[in-house]
Amino acid sequence: MLSLQFIRENPALVAKAIADKNVALDLDALLRLDTEVRAAKSEVDELRRQRNAISDGFKTADPADRPALGAKAKAIGAEISAIETGLAEKGDALNALMLRLPGIPWNGAPIGPDESFNTVVRQEGAVPAFDFEPRDHVALIEMNDWADLGRITQVSGSRQYCLKGRLALLEQALMFWAQQKLAGEGFTLMTVPALARPSAFFATGHFPGHEEEAYEIPKDELYLAGTGEIALTSLHSGEIIEADKLPILYAGYSPCFRREAGSAGRDVRGLLRLHQFYKLEQYVICEDDDAVSAEWHARLLANAETLLKDLEIPYQVVETSTGDMGLGKYRMNDIESWVPSLGKYRETHSCSTLHDWQARRANLRWRDGERKVRFVHTLNNTALASPRILVPLLENHQQADGRVRLPKALQGLMGGEFL
Predict the structure, then answer these.
(1) Is the domain of 24 the same as that of 88?
(2) Phi, psi values for residue 32, rounded to 5°
(3) Annotated catalytic residue: which of 51, 347, 386, 395?
(4) Residue 137: CB partners within 8 Å, gap ≥ 6?
(5) Are 217 and 296 members of one domain?
(6) In the listed set 65, 98, 131, which residue is the last one of a domain according to the structure?
(7) Which residues pair with 240 in a beta bridge?
(8) Which stretch of DSSP H or E encloses residue 12?
């Protein structure tokens, strides 16, 4: 969310962000509502002043004048009530538009309406050259009896998974290994629930606009979250954090759920696009300094890259376009891992800086050295998401006989060189 003062002072910049992020929003209508709301509030304030003046002078007024004064005060009260009714309606309409306002994107972000405008920053690691016909991850799983991908659909429907044996163990080992790595980087490990109130989804900017992607539990007025970021953002909602407590670094682990609405026909085979998965999320709350949050963005991205390098998975870093980065993002980098069976890189990580856009929605603030209360900056980045990460891990390390060689970083945890 942007402040109304910023919008009033920078209408051209806000209009450009709306256009660059391909958002359907009428800024002129928002500014008209803002003007009308402010005018109505001023009118109510003036009417209250008049009524208070009548009340203050009532006791000393001539008795003959008191009925007229009382009637005038009553009429003013009725006028205030009528204006406030309209004011509430206009205030709600204004707030609804404010919730759909995009954040101002980074100047270096590629401008374009969708992912086709994303640009590759760099590629890391050598794409494997197999001297045999490589298998995709589903064939490797079936060959080694590492999952019941067919049977589980009888229980839970499509886009579900059920790992078994060594692959089930590997999934848990991966998350434990990644948690240890982030703990070593100073992040506090957190386990957070997938269940969250609608207010938590509004706080992160997932609502309004993405309700169809979340599973709703209407009886309990809860939703299932698709990322630990939702719980972590609202954890300190309404608090004022002292300067010496910043930055707050969390590594949030949680089950995640997404309906994958609108993705019919995409990635229906295997483990790439599922309704339920597990994710370890890096999350940062820091002071509202552009340079400081830029440093944290670089560090979060570096952490994710280190994990992929340790897993010996080739990848590329992508600068995400304004139309693909999401409503509140200031800057967003995706990391795409090489998937041999597809012959291309696929997104496995996403690193985002939101400046104070998210903090304003969540009422996340800090008190600086001069005791001034300000909104913080928030950032988030995928450390590891499973089972998606298993796709490039299995396919890049497969052997001619169908076995999968484990990267050295995992061999100790798994008790051997092969899965």
Answers:
(1) yes
(2) -65, -45
(3) 347
(4) 270, 271, 341, 390, 391, 394, 395
(5) yes
(6) 98
(7) 365
(8) helix 11-20
Q: Which domain, by its residues, includes 16?
A: 4-98
d(CA 135, CA 43) in angstroms, rounded, equals 72
**Are residues 225 and 364 both part of a single domain?**
yes
pTM above 0.90, yes or no: yes
Q: What backbone torsions phi and psi does residue 319 show, to the nearest 5 degrees?
A: -90, 120
92 and 152: one domain? no
Instruction: Tell me, yes or no, whether 63 and 172 share the same domain.
Output: no
The answer to whether residue 104 is domain-embedded is no
- pLDDT tens column, 304-323: 999 999 999 999 999 999 99
How far from the centroid of its chain's Cα atoms is residue 365's Cα? 18
In-domain check, residue 105: no
Let me know if 273 is a catalytic residue: yes
Beta bridge partners of 195: 224
Q: Which of 197, 259, 273, 374 is catalytic?
A: 273
64: confidence class by pLDDT, cuts 50, 70, 90: confident
Choosing from 350, 352, 361, 365, which is the catalytic residue? 350
State which of 46, 71, 98 marks the end of a domain.
98
Q: What is the pLDDT of residues 206-263, one digit of tens each?
A: 999 999 999 999 999 999 999 999 999 999 999 999 999 999 999 999 999 999 865 5
Q: What is the mean pLDDT of the chain?
A: 95
Tell whether 79 and 149 lie within a shared domain. Answer: no
Total domains present in the chain: 2
CATH of the domain at 85: 1.10.287.40
Q: Does residue 109 belong to any structural domain of this protein? A: no
pLDDT of 156 strictly over 70 = yes
Please tell me which residue in 51, 258, 299, 361 is annotated as part of the active site.
258
Is the CB of residue 156 less than 8 Å from the CB of residue 150? no
Is 350 part of the annotated catalytic residue set?
yes
Same domain for 154 and 87? no
